[in-house]
Write a structure and sequence with these properties.
Layout lengths: L2 H14 L10 H15 L10 H11 L2 H22 L4 H45 L6 E2 L2 E8 L10 E8 L2 E9 L7 H17 L3 H17 L26 E8 L5 E7 L5 E4 L2 E4 L21 E4 L5 E5 L1 H4 L11 H10 L7 H15 L7 E8 L6
């Protein structure tokens, strides 16, 4: 799930909604035939040959260069034959044939440019998708004794990832998790996302405590702040005007770090300025207690080391980590999405939250109904200890 599912849904949507639509390829030849019919059934003083240029222009978006040339040649041939049969070859006919021939040649050339641009775009898109999926890897349904499920939605419809992040890794110290939100959103925040995830994945395997893992991420963010990104080699800016990153001293990330024990019956929580965890136990939704601290990247302002809080989990308990994009999703009246209230309604409905997969599916669909248009990136991940003997 996560970014992997988002990528699959992007591909499925593109397959269901191809551009240009398939029916458009029938329009150029139909327009040629319609033009000839109009020219035959109307008096000679009416001239519709100029419409043939429209068929060539439409062919530019649907056919290869040879197809564009074929449409233009067919139009020229039919127009010449029609005018000869009507014995009405005049200046308008010559002008129409000349314009049609010029437009055909130009359209064929532009068609070649379009196809090369499309090919390049597909290659760039494939590379971008591979990079994005390398950062936000698909979540497994289960890691040892821990059931996991989540979803991810970027505010930018054309991107698979944005400013939210997650990573789940089994380590010698237990199953470690980070869920965070980079300052900013969209494509401009992905560099910080890459820094945090790569630092976490390394530190989670080597550092014995969550505080030390957070310290390693703090150091990486400090390096980013001291060495801000520069313009890339070659022409063109690093970002579009609306996505330029903020000042280097504003690099920080709100995050929550989790460490599940080997049997997933205990979880340690280190809160670095992130949204409160939601706990569901026996149908009751509550906020998990944490020691709220400053975000990652602001360790130089801490007056005391952040403290990890330990919680006991029973089989069937569910712990949910999410970003503020979920709780700040607004409906048409501007009302924020009430996550805990909606979850309590679900749990009080009789069926209960069920599995983590069912729960995150409910959140994803419910947020989409509440706020059809996203203003921020979304991530939500649910964790549940598996009952004894469940394989």
């Amino acid at each position: 799930m996560g970014a992997g599912r988002a990528a699959a849904e992007h591909r499925q949507w593109a397959e269901r909604h191809p551009w240009p639509p398939r029916w458009l390829r029938w329009v150029p030849p139909a327009l040629v035939v319609a033009t000839m019919v109009l020219d035959r059934v109307t008096p000679p003083s009416y001239f519709f040959g100029s419409l043939l240029t429209a068929s060539v222009v439409l062919a530019l978006f649907t056919y290869p260069p040879l197809g564009v040339l074929a449409v233009g040649a067919a139009g020229c041939g039919l127009l010449a034959v029609t005018e000869v049969l009507e014995d009405y070859v005049g200046p308008m006919t010559v002008v129409a044939l000349t314009v049609l021939a010029v437009v055909t040649l130009l359209s064929a050339a532009l068609c070649g440019v379009r196809r090369r641009a499309e090919s390049r775009f597909r290659r760039v898109q494939a590379v971008a998708e591979a990079v994005q999926l390398a950062l936000l890897r698909p979540l497994p349904a289960r890691i040892g004794p821990l059931r996991v499920a989540g979803f991810y939605r970027a505010a930018d419809d054309e991107a698979l990832i944005g400013g939210d992040l997650y990573s789940v890794r089994p380590t010698p110290f237990g199953i470690r998790v980070i869920v965070g939100d980079v300052k900013g959103k969209g494509i401009s925040a992905t560099q910080t996302v890459a820094t945090v995830i790569s630092s976490f994945q390394e530190a989670a395997l080597l550092q014995p405590s969550l505080s030390q893992v957070a310290e390693r991420i703090d150091v990486a963010l400090q390096l980013d702040r001291d060495n801000p990104p520069t313009e890339p080699m070659g022409a063109g800016p690093a970002y579009t005007p609306g996505e330029a990153p903020g000042p280097a001293d504003e690099v920080f990330v709100t995050a929550v770090l989790l460490e599940f024990s080997a049997d997933a019956r205990t979880v340690r929580v280190l809160d670095r300025g992130h949204q409160p965890l939601v706990s569901i136990r026996q149908g009751t939704v509550s906020v998990a207690e944490t020691d709220h601290s400053l975000p990652l990247g602001m360790s130089d302002l801490l007056t005391a080391p952040p403290r990890a809080v330990t919680h006991l989990l029973d089989p069937g308990d569910i712990l949910i980590a999410y970003s503020d994009g979920v709780t700040e999703a607004r409906d048409g009246a501007g009302t924020f999405y009430p996550l805990r209230e909606r979850l309590q309604e679900l749990c009080s409905g009789g069926a209960g939250p069920g599995s983590p997969a069912r729960l995150v599916t409910f959140i994803e669909e419910d947020v989409a109904r509440w706020a059809p248009t996203l203003g921020d990136d979304l991530v939500a991940i649910a964790f549940q200890p598996a009952p004894p003997g469940d394989e």
